[in-house]
Design a protein that fits this description.
Blueprint: H1 4-16, E1 30-32, E2 38-45, H2 58-64, E3 68-72, H3 92-109, E4 110-118, H4 120-131, E5 137-141, H5 152-164, E6 169-171, E7 188-190, H6 191-210, E8 217-223, H7 231-243, E9 248-253, H8 272-281, H9 284-287
Parallel strand pairs: 2-3, 2-4, 4-5, 5-8, 8-9
Antiparallel strand pairs: 1-3, 6-7
């Protein structure tokens, strides 16, 4: 009889083999495993221009609570050259394929699967909640369904335009430029990559109008007054899910100073001592009684 956990280790090795020599060691796919299949495996998906180093503290905290945890590197992220232009190649199909491969891996490492993602990773977690069965809990955190304060229709128009006009790389902070932190993340983003993420957001939103999500439970979390994404569109998506009978909630994190990223300890505005307790508590029901 085959051993699912050993099969999972082999699948993990294949996933980590995608982290070539140009990927920072801390930026590759990371795993915190108990040496056996656990009641829960949690997949963590990072934000645009970041990488699994974003979860360098959060992943171990989940592991200490008893879960097997995988922080997955998304395509074209984590390069040692922070000014790389490779991220402009990102396609929505690559993101979905990464999600599907990770879900297969998680099913081998845990009896149940939870998916949590931040920003772009949050959009991907919401896509998984809508379209993929086998997800016990999906936690989209600060998902990008509309950029900045734009509405979703305006963001969709921006997406369509970004696919037509030449790509542009935009500094996250035009004053700091290369000095932008987190130090392992890219200090600028390509408009083509944003368009790829918006395609996933659009597909999720449209499907939610017609059908209930397949995930058993969804807990969307946003940062109040988020400067990077439009929280109202996330709230509207949750309302659509609820109208379809889904067990879905919408919750706000209050962060001071204002910070789009509640995970990365290397973010200059990080206040993980105030954000982690709430984010970790979302898994309490699934981890109740699980040995640490």
């Amino acid at each position: 009889m085959s051993d699912p956990f050993q099969e999972g280790l082999a699948a993990l090795a294949r996933l980590q083999a995608l982290d070539g020599s140009t990927i920072l060691p801390a930026a590759g796919t990371q795993a915190w495993l108990h040496g056996e299949r656990r009641p829960l495996c949690v997949l963590l998906f990072h934000g645009l221009t970041n990488n699994p180093a974003q979860f360098a503290a959060f992943g171990p905290a989940l592991y200490e609570r008893g879960a097997n945890v995988i922080a997955v590197r998304l395509p074209h992220h984590g390069e040692s050259d922070r000014l790389t232009t490779k991220l402009a190649r990102l396609r929505s199909t690559e993101l979905v394929a990464t999600l599907d491969n990770a879900l297969e891996l998680a099913a081998l490492l845990g009896e149940r699967t939870a998916v949590m993602g931040h920003s772009t990773g949050g959009t991907l977690a919401a896509y998984g909640a809508q379209f993929r069965s086998g997800i016990e809990l999906a936690v989209p955190v600060c998902p990008g369904f509309a950029v900045l304060r734009f509405s979703r229709p305006m963001s969709r128009a921006i997406m369509l335009g970004a696919r037509i006009v030449p790509n542009v790389h935009i500094w996250w902070d035009p004053e700091l430029r290369e000095s932008f932190r987190p130090a392992a993340a890219y200090p600028r983003f390509p408009t083509r990559a944003v368009a790829a993420v918006m395609r996933i957001a659009d597909a999720t939103f449209r499907a939610a109008r017609r059908a209930a999500p397949l995930a058993k439970k969804i807990r969307a979390v946003v940062v109040a007054r988020d400067p990077a994404v439009n929280n109202l569109e996330t709230q509207r998506l949750v309302e659509r899910w609820r109208r379809r009978g889904a067990e879905a909630t919408y919750e706000e994190l209050i962060t001071e100073p204002l910070n789009h990223d509640p995970f990365d300890p290397d973010s200059p505005r990080a206040r993980t001592e105030s954000t982690y307790p709430m984010l970790l508590s979302l898994f309490d029901d699934l981890l109740s009684g699980t040995p640490s």
